[in-house]
Specification:
By secondary structure, the chain is an alpha+beta fold. 31% of the residues lie in helices and 37% in strands. β18 and β19 form a beta hairpin. Belongs to the membrane fusion protein (MFP) (TC 8.A.1) family.
Length: 384
């Protein structure tokens, strides 16, 4: 019985030790900040060395955002009509003035023919009115001369009162015809003007049946197919400035004072593994009350492979801090472990370190070095 208890205790202890071993309790791969963990002496001293040094660095805070085109335009129909042809698809690059969508123009063509006929008829009426007013003016001039002659003779008592009355009646009748002719000309000119405007409207409407690209752009979205009804206000296509992108990021209110239009800032596109410099174009003057962030728009340079909708980060400077930097060639990586060859009391020893951001040909050491240490640059003489 006593022997069984001893065996049980031994098995339990062995099991516990095995669990602790798999959990990594006896491994020293993890490096706590500010501590130096040694991985073993080097077989040979290095031939080339460098010194880990302290340098003031700008601390940045990442603000997430989305890549969007700098200019995005909705293409809509100016007239109502059925779509006869769509000549582009999403992703196509188009030139200014290039036809994008063709609408059915049969109804508008018929309206233009009718407007042309109405305009020609109005022009004919206007010419008739002008002819009528010329005739009325001639008749009026003749009646005025006759009236003045009879009036003079009547004063000399050379004509009767009846002849005088007849001359006056003829004069008034000619004057009335002239006034009617003038009113007719005004009406004819007004009708001709309206007909000309209607004809011009149909011509313009016919021009709208061919929807063209407003600028050199790229088709972002297509939401119309042949046979669909196009009406004003309904987006048929969305086009964007080809190649011109910007990052729209949300910056928290505590950092917005560091972001101003015209300032250059670093941006990161993780999908492309690219870091680039962008220029702040616009900072919206009001914050989102739900997130306490401001929308910041940063113009991006031409980056191959960049597309609207991609994820990006805006690196906002948040202050200065001291950092330990060392040549990137001093870092040896084995799996996920990083180490440097450190000179310690006349001997060379590999120690574990933790690296951070890269600064050109140097890398920040977050833990393992404090600055001023001499480290070796890996080479064939001490690669192991």
């Amino acid at each position: 019985m006593q022997q069984s208890k001893v065996i049980t205790i031994i098995v339990a202890a062995a099991t516990l030790l095995l669990i602790l071993w798999f959990a990594g309790a006896f491994q020293s791969d993890t490096l706590a900040p500010g501590h130096v963990a040694k991985s073993g002496p080097a077989r040979q001293p290095p031939q080339v060395t460098t010194v880990a040094h302290l340098q003031q660095m700008t601390e940045v805070i990442e603000s997430v955002g989305t890549v969007r085109p700098r200019t995005e335009t909705r293409i809509e129909a100016q007239v109502t009509g059925k779509v006869r042809e769509v000549r582009v698809r999403a992703g196509d690059v188009v030139k200014r003035g290039e036809p994008l969508i063709i609408l059915d123009d049969r109804e508008l063509t018929s309206r233009r023919v009718q407007a042309e006929q109405s305009f020609q008829s109005a022009k004919a009426k206007r010419e008739q009115a002008r002819q009528a007013i010329s005739e009325a003016q001639a008749g009026n001039s003749k009646a005025v001369a006759q009236f003045q002659r009879i009036q003079k003779l009547f004063k000399d008592k050379a004509v009767t009162s009846r002849e005088m009355d007849q001359a006056e009646a003829d004069y008034r009748q000619a004057l009335s015809r002239l006034e009617q002719a003038r009113e007719g000309l005004i009406g004819a000119e007004s009708e001709a003007r309206r007909a000309a405007e209607a004809l011009e409207e149909t011509r313009i409407a016919l021009g709208y049946t061919v929807i063209r690209a407003p600028e050199d752009m790229q088709v972002a979205r297509r939401s119309v197919e042949p046979g669909d009804l196009a009406i004003p206000g309904k987006a048929l296509l969305v086009v964007q400035t080809a190649g011109a992108m910007r990052l729209e990021a949300f910056v928290r209110e505590g950092l917005i004072r560091r972001v101003r239009p015209g300032v250059e800032m670093n941006i990161v596109i993780p999908a492309l593994e690219r870091t680039a410099r962008g220029v702040v174009e616009e900072v919206l003057p009001s914050a989102d009350p739900a997130t306490r962030t401001f929308l910041v728009k940063v113009a991006l340079p031409d980056i191959p492979g960049l597309h609207p909708g991609m994820f990006g980060r805006l690196l906002v400077p948040a202050g200065k801090r001291n950092a330990v930097l060392v040549d990137v060639n001093a870092i040896r990586r084995v799996g996920q472990l990083e180490s440097v060859l450190l000179q310690d009391k006349g001997s060379w020893t590999w120690i574990y370190v933790k690296t951070g951001e890269h600064q050109g040909n140097e890398v920040e050491i977050l833990a393992g070095l404090s600055g001023g240490e001499t480290v070796g640059l890996p080479g064939a003489d001490h690669a192991n």
